[in-house]
Specification:
Nuclear Transport Factor 2, Chain: A; 4 helices; globular
């Protein structure tokens, strides 16, 4: 009887240990600090701005996750990096971005996904006219297997519809 009680205690201990391991592994999404998320958003927005200013649609498209969704103001969704690259190639071929600045208003998330909202100001030269625009946006950044961050969702619209 002592052997059964001892074996039962070992089984309960093993079961408790296994439960803890499973619980920990299922809930093992680490959090980033607010400062870390803000830095990731700021650094990636800076890279986006450089791509826009350079008119480099290919580098810009590489900022997006392979299955990303892009939704420009008043337009349809573009899904996937190839469709997003085609969108940027068409747009950057007809217009030259002269200035751009992103103002992040909020970030939240965890070690795998960052949610960002903000506004973006740009000056665009199109057919000899300079257009100034401010849009509000929502970006969702997804951590990649190589630990880089790419856009999973890029959505913007004009805050002042006429």
């Amino acid at each position: 009887m002592k052997f059964t009680t001892q074996r039962s205690a070992v089984q309960h201990g093993a079961l408790a240990l296994l439960s803890c391991v499973l619980l920990f592994s299922c809930n093992n999404v680490q959090n980033l600090s607010q400062s870390e998320m803000e830095t990731i958003a700021r650094d990636n927005n800076s890279r986006l701005e450089k791509c826009y200013l350079a008119g480099d649609a290919d580098k810009l498209a590489e900022m997006y996750d392979e299955n990303a969704k892009l939704c420009p103001d008043g337009d349809d969704f573009r899904t996937g990096r190839k469709a997003i690259a085609a969108f940027w190639k068409e747009n950057l071929a007809t217009a030259k971005i002269k200035a751009m600045h992103t103002n992040t208003m909020s970030v939240s998330g965890n070690a795998e996904t960052i949610y960002e909202t903000g506004t973006s100001y740009s000056e665009t030269l199109y057919k000899d006219s300079l257009y100034k625009s401010t849009v509000k946006y929502v970006n969702i950044w997804k951590r990649q297997p190589d630990k880089s961050w790419k856009l999973a969702v890029d959505f913007w619209n004009d805050p002042k519809k006429r």
